[in-house]
Amino acid sequence: MADLSINMCGIRSPNPFWLASAPPANTGEQVMRAFDAGWGGAVWKTLGNPIVNVSSRFGAVDYAGQKMMGLNNIELITDRPLDVNLREIAEVKKRYPHHAVIVSLMVESKDEWKEIIRRSEDTGCDGLELNFGCPHGMCERGMGSAVGQEPKVLQEITAWAKEYARTPVLIKLTPNVGDIVEPALAAVAGGADGLSLINTIKSIVGVDLDRMAPLPRVGVASTNGGYCGPAVKPIALHMIAALAREPGVRVPISGIGGVSNWRDAAEFIALGSTSVQVCTAVMHHGYKIVEDMIAGLSNFLDERGMTLDQLRGAAVPNYREWGELDLNYKIVAKIDADRCIGCQKCVAACHDGAHQCIFTGPDDRARPPHAHAHGPAKAPRPLPLGRLAGDRVPWVDEPECVGCNLCALVCPVEGCITMTEVAHEGGVDTWNDRVRDGRDKVPGRIFE
Amino acid sequence: MTAPAYTLPDQRLESRLDDAKPAFTASEARAEAERCLYCVDAPCIKACPTSIDIPRFIQQIATGDVLGSARTILQSNILGYSCARVCPVEVLCVGDCVYNGWHKPPIQIGRLQRFATDAALTREASTGRRVLTPKTAAHRRRVALLGAGPASLACAAYLALEGHEAVIFERNALPGGLNTTGVAPYKLHAEDSLREVEYVRSLGVEIRTGVEVGRDVTVASLLEGYDAVFLGIGLGADTRLSVPGEDGAGVVGATAFIERLKNEAGFTVDGVRRAVVVGGGNTAIDVARELAKLGVSDVAMVYRRSAKEMSGYEHEMHHARVEGVRLVENAAPVAVVRSDDGAVTGLRVARTEKGSPVAGDERVLDADLVVLAIGQSKLRALAGEFAGVELDKRGCVVVDAVTKRTGHAKVYAGGDCINGGKEVVNAVADGRDAARAMMRAWG
Hints:
The complex is a heterodimer. Chain A is of the alpha/beta class. Chain A contains 14 helices and 20 strands. Chain A starts with 5 loop residues before the first strand and ends in an 11-residue tail after the last helix. Chain B is an alpha/beta fold. Chain B folds into 3 domains: 109 residues, Orthogonal Bundle (Fumarate Reductase Iron-sulfur Protein, Chain B, domain 2); 161 residues, FAD/NAD(P)-binding domain; 122 residues, 3-Layer(bba) Sandwich (FAD/NAD(P)-binding domain). Chain B is built from 17 helices and 13 strands. In chain B, the strands form 3 sheets. Chain B has a 5-stranded parallel beta sheet, with helices on both faces. Chain B has a 5-stranded parallel beta sheet with strand order 5-12-6-7-8. Chain B is globular and about 70 Å long. At the A-B interface, helix 12 of A face helix 1 and helix 6 of B.
């Protein structure tokens, strides 16, 4: 079994899987059960001056029969007394000395930061995470994302925390900004030891059409919440990758946002995360999911003969600007007639949503007037008869196929549509190459 | 909806038979609907005799527009409520679902259609808000329809929706045709058939029951008083075997037997321990399954040829076997065996080769009930009263394939009387097509 232990800016953990600061890490009783289940660390539900929470608090987006593709919440920070939380944190740390216990904090004044950092660190916790991300409720009081969206304020408070803290300080960033690099650089300038991202995305999860009220409903009304879960993973991956390749960000990253299984975690790590934090998947399925995450990541590394250190950031160099992509690379769709079930989803997708190059039937077909190739689309002869779908198997007009992937994305049958690389002449040719060589003029410009 | 005009007695035997395909709950329906791939040029639509836009109505269930879903169904098949239950979907829409080839369970289209039409009829009855709203015709025509089975009901409903007057003449006391009297109860109970009839009446269709054309009303008066006549007269009495011992108690025709089971108060099969059903079609399988489900411990089907030559559906025969029905293939009835007091004790059968009895190779199947499901007679006489209406060699009314018009310019026909006995959905398609053809002919 691969060694999954990590050291994130001095915070040691038996594996990279941490509970995110959220309801699953609300109490000592929960965190201890989570550690027993296998979680390597936990970022405690944010401490501050206790607040009052509303009922209800969560809303979800279901998709095609699957529950909770995305989760939205309007819950605030902990509503339990500070001393109770601190006593439980100390107890957990005493019982689980080798697990990572990080305390999430959110207060206003410098004096409050000083006091809460001192009292938190007195529990023996391994590190602090400053919550500059929460986009609902707390931001109305000048905290959470209100700080994360103001790089100067963020840097100042980070510096306060670093002044008082003896343990590593992570800054949790909000994705509700134009460019994630700005607050990240501000955090690093303030002395942050690490970055956690993303916090939730400002959202309204739905509308109750009977009561004409947004969801989740509190009486007759609602407020915007924070969106998380599998739906936000692509946004998180991008922001993490953007920081991982930013030379000014030299601190480790704790990746958050829709991590639900080992594969998600591996992707976050490949784009530069050291630890990953999980919330929605635990809220959906319970602490037990970490068993599969540990086994899956370990099996993956063993199979590839890789270490966790080698995986970390392995995909970052291949995240490039569009101008660095090879314009000569070409793929086309190939349909495996014997796997095709004849649903023809690809036909509608290609004709209505892409580039009009997938057809059915034995006859040659007229290409649309805007086609690039000349003459009709040539039907294959003989028409391939599918083992399952017979003559309902569609065919691809390859000269017109731009290799967009859409047909393969909508095809319900795994392995039926394969995007296949086509040989091409010449080497790599990027847009940036063309700009450099003065070949960047495409016919049909506004000003020729 | 108007007040129910037709009532059934309590204590009907069919009430003991539960739905073979139970209703979906809302969450089950939604989950099933969300499995649909929403195929392009969908094979299920092509397999439906009424061409319901199946992916569309399923999508409407998935998105929570159940009334819109029912509208999609009823526009193509006004009897979508009963067809959802009685259609042999295994050989129609569901049988052509692309999931079959993929070795995944096909979409349960019938049960989804039931979900949508149940909800729509319930809501329409309770709120009066219509799924389909009858129009007013600029020039209102009158159509007389013979027989209140699915073909006439469909034809009348589509005429009424366009604002025309449709009057159905039914010989029986109860309308609905075989949906009321003949469909296996585990598919459709008589009260559900009558519920659908009420829906058709609510569209403005008039039904006159207990009226026999030729006796109570003359053919001439119909041709005189109406702009068109539709023959939806179905089939006649059960065919007899013409073997010794056949006449008398203990030997019954299948459709007559099922009608009593479905409609008659206090009808029972309690004294029956062993039953033999003669025939290899779907009616034979229905009767055999009903008897087995009602507790008759030994139910045998006797068929003249081999199992694979049966006209009954394979999936139905599979269910029958699961329920304990045994098939005696390659055997033909020779005589009904009776005791000295005249009670049926068995059916003497001869072994057959290629359907023909082999002399001297006979045996007796013990039975105290023999049910004959070998077909129904054709109502040649009634059809023959309309000048110009022709019958083919089988006795079926000859119609134009598209318009369902007979040799008489004002007379149309559909359902079992033109095809010799097919599905409800075929009758609906005929009735609908005839209604459309009439309206086209009127201009």
